[in-house]
Amino acid sequence: MPPDFVHTAMVVGNEAFLSAEGSPVLSALQDRLRFQDFSVPHGHGGEVDYTLFRAEDTSAWVTFTLVFFGLITFDMFVLNRNPTALSMTKAVIFTMFWIGCAGMFCVWVYWYYGRDQAFMWLSGYMLEWMLSFDNLFVF
């Protein structure tokens, strides 16, 4: 006959688990969790401190804004100046152009911020590229 366990709720992080008091697995888990540091770096007022616009990133934001508006202007007034049907060849060329622009931006991120930041940017770009394909199946 199994031992008589008392069921309790244990909270780890934001997850609640139903556990059994006296269980060897539970006691091992409790011992392991007792010595873990789950603290989060906090800023002022107990909130996590994140800053989007830092003073040292001003030149990066200015560069990004200028390049963004330059490319949008180029797209609107040069690439799409004649409202004609888009051929498959033209669509592939335009797609390769924009992927090339993204690649050049990734090279700039590598030069300005380093390898790890460039890898994170490229990972995010590839993830967004893959997630954009689901929009094809919505309509």
What's this, in brief?
This protein has 139 residues and is mostly helical. Helices cover 59% and strands 10% of the residues. The chain has helices at 24-34, 58-79, 88-113, 115-132, 134-138, and strands spanning 6-12, 15-21.
What do these coordinates show?
It is built from 5 helices and 2 strands; from the N terminus they run ββααααα. The chain has 139 residues and is mostly helical. A two-stranded antiparallel sheet has the order 1-2. α3 packs antiparallel against α4.
Helical element count? 5
* DSSP strand tally: 2
Integer average pLDDT:
75
Strand content: 5-15%
Span of the ends, CA to CA: 59 Å
- Biggest sheet: strand arrangement: 1-2
Rg, Cα atoms, Å:
26 Å
- Quaternary class: single chain
Secondary-structure-derived class: mainly alpha
Order of helices and strands: EEHHHHH
Helix amount: 55-70%
Poorly predicted residue ranges:
1-16
Q: How would the global form be characterised?
A: extended
